[in-house]
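haha ok so turns out i had the wrong file open the whole time. this is the CORRECT one, sorry everyone. sequence first:
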Amino acid sequence: MTTQLLLVLGLLVAAIAMFVANRPRMDVVGLLMIVLLPFTGAVTMNEALAGFADSSIVLIAALFVIGEGLVRTGVARRMGDLLGQAAGGSESRALVMLMIAAAFLGAFMSSTAVVAIFIPIVLRLCAGTGASPRALMMPLSVAALISGMLTLIATAPNLMVNAELARQGLEGFGFFGITPFGLPILVLAVLYMLVARRLLAGPAAAPEAVTRRASLNDWIEAYGLPDREYRLEVVAGSPLAGRRLEELQLRKDGLNILAIERPRRFGAELVRPHGPVTIQAGDILLADVQAPAAGHDALFARHGLVVLLLTGGARYFTDRSQDMGMVEALVPAESALVGKTILEARLRSDYGMTAIGLRHGSRAAGPDLLSQRIEVGDTLLLFGFWSDLKLLRRDNRDLVLLNLPAEYDEILPAPGRALPAVASLAVTVALMVGGVVPNVQAALIGCLLMGLFGCVDMTSAYRSISWKTLVLIVGMLPFSIALQRTGGVDLAADALLAVAGDFSPRLVLAVLFVVTAGLGLFISNTATAVLMAPVAIAMAKDLGFSPYPFAMIVALAASTAFMTPVSSPVNTLVVAPGNYAFGDFLKVGVPFSLVCLVVSVMMVPWLLPLR
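then structure:
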């Protein structure tokens, strides 16, 4: 063993020790290795920095951006909503649907992001089915980890193993090369968790003592809004057609236009009801009608309006909550609105919002809302586009923003762009599967399509990339070169062969799986793949076997991170909402890790021949 190898191994042990202690941060450890490894003489500074130009690193960054597009456009959330509908009231059905959905989505985006998206969905499912979060949170994390076994791009360890094959002049795995192994494991995981959830029986986490935020439906009831909302189509020949809103003075007739749906070639455009806007035949007016109910028919006939059904039966246009909704605002003592009527206040002109409710103390105003005078301390219920809230927040002299509805937290940054996001993902996957262009180029094309269609912007794209993960990987990549040059890889391979060299090929693969999964208990699975992939390939060469079964075992073992809450960020995320202890992961994760070991060792040599 040379001095150079001892120095490299010393740095590797130090890095592992820092990973275990979690001090300093993982990316800082990566930077330390980039700086210190060249001092060993095993790699040059340019080689230590070469990871930043590695195509695998660029590919991982691009996949973060594509995943962000699926989140911003609501594709991921829509999958969760469909899951809730399909589950009905059955806990078992909810578990099965949850694991399938999380695994499928995680096959194309960050598994950590998938778990973050699904946690609130699982909590809603538990509220609807009466299930404990303990019964569903761990199945969620297990499915998210297994998603790394479904496609080549699903997790960074797969890409690191693939990159090592390419570095050694070998052909990499295909996009779905890992899928035949992951699908059986997913099926077994679903069946296993249906039984193993009984091991998680126990009290759910106590709900936090927080005040529930009001929803749009709460305000609809509190301010007496039911039956005031109408969708009215402007028919050909209507006296409103061709005239500007400011000319019509419809509010004096009790007809308050909140928004205009204007048909376009693809869908409908939502138009703000500003004074200069010209009404067109075919427009659909979203209106709050405060005129006496007995006179509605005559009012609509006089203006050439036809009543349409509310979309999906939604109350007070809550189906449009991604674009517009309600807020409560308080009238301070120094407000210039004090003493004015709602009609005189001209809130739409100043703030872009329309007053649809007024409360004096706890008493809501009656049907004569427009003639009510505003008093100090009154609460106004305002309706408008979310994008106009900045006007209300900027000027708090006359109105102070008091409450936002619960639905405000669910507003998508890029609503209405789900189909382009799915199409961009489909193009990316098709290019990768077809091998038309390199994987990294296909992913960059997907990023550009996401940006072109408005699914992501530059700010969200940069923010979506886990730079900590990338710096960690870049910092560990030089170890692969250093260990190969100093003989460390051969030393590790010889050590494993000394233990398992006389075993059957399947037992050798089993030992490699156990070592890889065991190392992943202490350091990140990405770093594990970087270190173990060259060792696995060296073992295969020494034994005269194909490198592909050995490389695949490393990829599968790196995703087998079920055994502790710190094995993966995916596990860490579900600890609090599931109220899990360290032992919960051991009693559920260890048996299933053994299942993965058996399935992998049996299937890999069958589908990827050893010779």
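The beta strands are 229-234, 255-263, 268-271, 284-289, 305-308, 324-330, 353-360, 363-364, 379-385, 400-403.
again sry for the mixup
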